[in-house]
Amino acid sequence: MKLTRSVLLSFLMLLAIDANPQEPKSQAPKERPTRMKVVLLGTGTPVRDPDRSGPATAIVVGDSAYLVDFGPGVVRRAEAAVLDRGITQLEPGNLKVAFVTHLHSDHTAGYSDLIFTGWTSGRSTPLEVYGPAGLNSMTEHILQAYRIDIETRTNPEGNQRAIADGWKVNAHEIRPGVIYKDANVTVTAFATKHAMQSYGYRFDTPDRSIESS
Ligand SMILES: [Zn+2]
């Protein structure tokens, strides 16, 4: 995983804002309406460190969460953020939009987990995923690999038949520029230099901007 300086700076800024150093120590810290949060779900590398999950960052804005990368462990680290930090936007069933910087395995080995555990955790709509060329093929092959699981869960006796579309994925192969926009964020992709086609993403929200790559 690469964290840009801007991510680190923004993350430190977030910590600084939350810490609110102006506050007299004798008073309870006031709640600040910070609308965007950055949650580092995984900061590992391809090295199999048991204490570092694979690269994955969550941008939380309002009631929604957006992932950048989905390395191994992403879903369980998201659930840990719910249980340990009360960040309910990261309930796996709420993970609906993801951006992948590039297709190296350490950044994508959690893809099938994100698709299928998100579905079995309650996501009823297709997962929206944005990334470089090759994402469509990777997505199609993962779904094909799990064809028997999908068929079993959606047949008339299947345990996911009530949300039979939650396994679906809309994969979007992108080019630089604005690639995503909703009521919370505008996401702009920019090319980065790596061993393969790769992108960073800038999230612009009403209160601040952050880049992750
Ligand atoms: Zn890489």
Care to describe what's here?
This protein is α/β, with parallel strands linked by helices and about 210 residues long. The chain has a domain at about 35-175: Ribonuclease Z/Hydroxyacylglutathione hydrolase-like (Metallo-beta-lactamase, Chain A). It has six helices and ten strands. Strands 1-2-3-4-5-6 form a six-stranded mixed beta sheet. It has a four-stranded antiparallel beta sheet with strand order 7-8-9-10. Strand 7 and strand 8 form a beta hairpin. The N and C termini lie close together (about 10 Å). The chain binds zinc ion. Zinc ion binds near residues 102, 104 and 194.
Outline:
This protein is 28% helix and 25% strand.
Topology:
Elements: H1 5-19, E1 36-42, E2 56-61, E3 64-68, H2 74-85, E4 97-99, H3 105-108, H4 111-120, E5 127-131, H5 135-145, H6 147-154, E6 169-173, E7 177-181, E8 186-192, E9 198-204, E10 209-212
Parallel strand pairs: 3-4, 4-5, 5-6
Antiparallel strand pairs: 1-2, 2-3, 7-8, 8-9, 9-10
This protein binds zinc ion.
Zinc ion (ZN) binds next to loops.
Number of strands: 10
Globally, the shape reads: globular
For this structure, the CATH topology of the domain at 36-175 is Metallo-beta-lactamase, Chain A
How much of the sequence is in beta strands? 25-35%
- Pattern of helices and strands: HEEEHEHHEHHEEEEE
Q: Provide the low-confidence segments as ranges.
A: 8-26
Give the C-level CATH assignment of the domain at 36-175.
Answer: Alpha Beta
What is the level-2 CATH architecture name of the domain at 36-175? 4-Layer Sandwich
Strands side by side in the biggest sheet: 1-2-3-4-5-6
Distance between the termini: 8 Å
* Full CATH superfamily name of the domain at 36-175: Ribonuclease Z/Hydroxyacylglutathione hydrolase-like
- By DSSP (H or I, 4+ residues per run), the number of helices equals 6
Class of secondary structure makeup: alpha/beta
Average pLDDT score: 88
**What ligands does this structure carry?**
zinc ion
Relative helix content = 25-40%
Major sheet summary line: 6 strands, mixed
Q: How big is the Rg?
A: 18 Å
